[in-house]
Structures are given as C-alpha cells and as structure tokens.
Write a structure and sequence with these properties.
Blueprint lengths: L1 H22 L2 H23 L5 H22 L5 H31 L4
Helix pairs in contact: 3-4
Amino acid sequence: NVGIKSAITLVIAALALAALGTVAPPAFMGHLTVFVLACFVGYQVIWKVTPALHTPLMSVTNAISGIIVIGALLQISNESNLVVILAGISVLIATINVAGGFLVTQRMLRMFRKS
C-alpha cells in the first residue's frame, strides 16, 4: 500500500533527523532547517507555474548560480584542501549553468523577436 510506505518513510526520516539533531551542532540544525524549507518552497513554486513560463523562470533562477560562483570564489582561499576542491568544483559547475542559462535566455528572446 502506497500510504503505508509513505508513512513508514516519513517516520524513518523523522527518526534519522532526531538522531542527527542529538549529535549535530546547533548551527548545523539551523542551516539544515532553512535548506529543507527552501527546497520545499522551491518545489511548490516550480510546480505551480504554468508550463509556458518554465523557461523564463529557469532563466531567472540561473542568476542564483552567479551567487554560488561568488560564494565558491570566496571559499577558494580557505586553508582546507577539501574546501578548496569543493569550491573549485562549485565554480566549474555553476559557471556552466550560468553560461547555459544565457544561451537558453537568448534562444527564448529570439522567439519573441519580430522578423
């Protein structure tokens, strides 16, 4: 039954979160809460948008990748090798996303151009 599986999954997730809360620092739990809420709100916003507006919405959200690039560039000077490697990967992936966003936006704007 799908309802029972969903309930069991929810209980397991709640128990895992409670276990994590007992060993994680308070700042981590605060950040995790904001992350989960942002994921939920983002999911709700995207699915409420009509399909015709998905491309413009994704073009706008690529600006967020620009913010990720800035944050990652700030972390590249960190002393931890792991942080530097992850920041470098973040810069690479977010830059690809920004460039792709510009290409999609240009293609979308060409559709509205009068010949």
